[in-house]
Every structure is written in C-alpha cells, then in structure tokens.
Amino acid sequence: MNDPHKTALAIDALRRGWPIALAGQDGTLALLPIETADPARLAAFDPGGAASLLLSAGRAATLTLANQRDAAAPDSPVLIERAPWLDFATATALADPQFDLQVPMKGPFRAHCLVERDAGAAALRLARIAGMLPAFFVLPGESAALVLTPGDIDAHENAARLTIATRAHLPVVGAEDAEIVAFRTPEMPGEHIALLIGKPDGRPPLVRLHSECLTGDMLGSLKCDCGPQLHAAIDAVAASGWGMILYLRQEGRGIGLINKLRAYALQDQGFDTVDANTRLGFAVDSRNFAVAARMLDLLGQRSVRLLTNNPQKVAQLEAAGIAVVERVPHILPANPHNERYLATKRDRTGHQF
Ligand SMILES: Nc1nc2c(ncn2[C@@H]2O[C@H](COP(=O)(O)OP(=O)(O)OP(=O)(O)O)[C@@H](O)[C@H]2O)c(=O)[nH]1
Ligand SMILES: [Zn+2]
To answer: In this predicted complex, what is the ipTM?
Structure first.
C-alpha cells in the first residue's frame, strides 16, 4: 500500500537533516541529506566512513566526471565513491554550486555503478520536492527510522487527492466580479488557487496556467516575465468574457524558491536559465500540469482555450484528458533584464514567440 503521509514525514526529516531510507525495486538506500546535515550527524550515520555520495548527473557533469555526461537526464542519479579525504565540507562543496568559484575541486572523483537506481532516482526527486539540493550521503540498507518507497512519493504527488477547500468572491484590479477557489491535498503545504472571471457563455473558457514566481509576482522582478504575464492574463480573460487563472504552486518550474534563487546566483555568473538548472542537478522543467487538469475537472471544465506560449502546457493538459481547442499566445514586451531569458525560452525550451 502506497502511503503519501510517509512522504510528508520524509520531507520534514530531510529539511531537519535527519536520515531516511528509500526502498526501490532494485534495493534499499539509507540517505543523509548533505544540505541540512552536519559533521556530527554524518559521524552518527556513517561511523565507519563508508558512505558514498549520491548526486545528480547534471551536477556530476559540472564536476567533470567525464563518464557522467548524460545531458538528456540531468536529474538522474550518480554514485560517487567516498575517498578518505572526502570530508563533510568537501561533500558540501560538491553538492552546492555556490562554492564552485571558491573551492578548488580536489578530485579525482570516481563514479560507481549505482545498483539501487530506482531508490537513488526517487531520493533525488524527493530532494527536489522538499526544495533542497539533490545530494546525499548514502549507504546500502535500511539504517534509518523512516523507510519509504518511490510509490509513496507518487501517491504524495497524485493530483487526484486535490479537493476544493473553499470559494469566495474576490474583486481584483481588472476583474471586480472575480471569484477565488482554493484547492488543497492533505499533504502539500502550498494551496493552488483558481481565479474565476466573468460568466460562462457556452464557449470553452479562456484559461491561464500561471506557475508561482514569488520574485516576479510579488516583488516586480524584471528578470522574468511572470508579473506582467499574470496581470495581462487577468485583463485578457476579462476581455474575453469568461475564463480563469489557475495559480499553481510550482515555484521555479518545480524546484522551489531557494533552488530557483540558487539558479539565479548561477545566472549572475553568466549561465542561462537552462544551464543553471542543469548545473544544480535538476531537469530544465520539473512541472507536472496534471494538477491543473484536476483543478479544471473539479471546476467542471473539460475543454479550454489556453493562454500560453508553452507547447508543453498544451500537451500535458491534453494527456490528462482536457481538450485544448485553441492556444492563445501570451507575449509581453521584453525589458533589458529579461531579454536573454526570453530568448533562451524561445531558443532552448520550445516556447513559441
Ligand atoms: N528554475 C527557474 N525557474 C524560473 C526561472 N525564471 C522563472 N522561473 C519560473 O518559471 C515559471 C514560469 O515559467 P516560464 O517558463 O517563464 O513560462 P511558462 O509558464 O512555461 O510559459 P508561458 O505559459 O508561455 O508563460 C515560474 O514558476 C517561475 O518561478 C529561472 O531562471 N529558473
Ligand atoms: Zn518569474
């Protein structure tokens, strides 16, 4: 039986720097998160100094582990042998790119064949869901109090567990008759929101899937186009007669705020939005829009006109059973700070401008 509550407990444990174990199809790994642990916890976890490091392929490639250049899957697991000189501080430097310019990498790092690939991949996925660096000390076996399976993580992510929690009128700038609908699952801290605008008129609604961007939505960041896109979407839906904004808690394309800001720090060093994600050890885009399909379902909408430049949103909604009868472009003027970001979206992530 898959148990989503175990995943919630595991996320909490990782955030506190406690070990967990993941039991996959090909074996079990005990894991201590590098970002939140410390040397004393490492000594308790691994008294014999035998633990290896579990990193992502993207991060391993950055560390020039030449046999790990798996550009297709930067978030797949790689096992690094624990040499005697590889102490906690060195492991931290391997995990966290903010130290790349300060810490000369000693090496040589030796990658080992990871037998427990299923458990390793699930561990990296769990780190991403927890908003943490995808990097662990790892030992074979179950030497942790909490043992979960990849299926427990799937259950935690299952959009079918989403329900409508409450709804109310919410007049907003550009749509004084709007209604807000809030959704949640038992496990996830972030509540998704729908803003319903106008009255149904028999046509499919104009729908905008907006992924959370604290920096753009709240602070007016000029690095991206999220803030202007959000407000222009409200105006466009209101002008169209009726529709909705789905505000999805997918900060940083699914890697969370802290990891997005780590990616911004890499962008300060000159990497673009794609390479920054990869160097951190994440996929370029970790979002799953099945959650939006579930929200539309709960709102009684099976057919939509979608306001987006991102063909992935169209494809994922359709795969989840929502008919996208039209894609409506949603292009805002560039500014000097987001010009390169928008060009990267056009040239490297398939956005249609
Ligand atoms: N990881 C990461 N996330 C970013 C970055 N800039 C913006 N985001 C996030 O990207 C999401 C918005 O995605 P975009 O790719 O800009 O646009 P989109 O939603 O795919 O496509 P459109 O529907 O055409 O706007 C939000 O969750 C932002 O927080 C970045 O440099 N790195
Ligand atoms: Zn943004």
So the answer is: 0.98
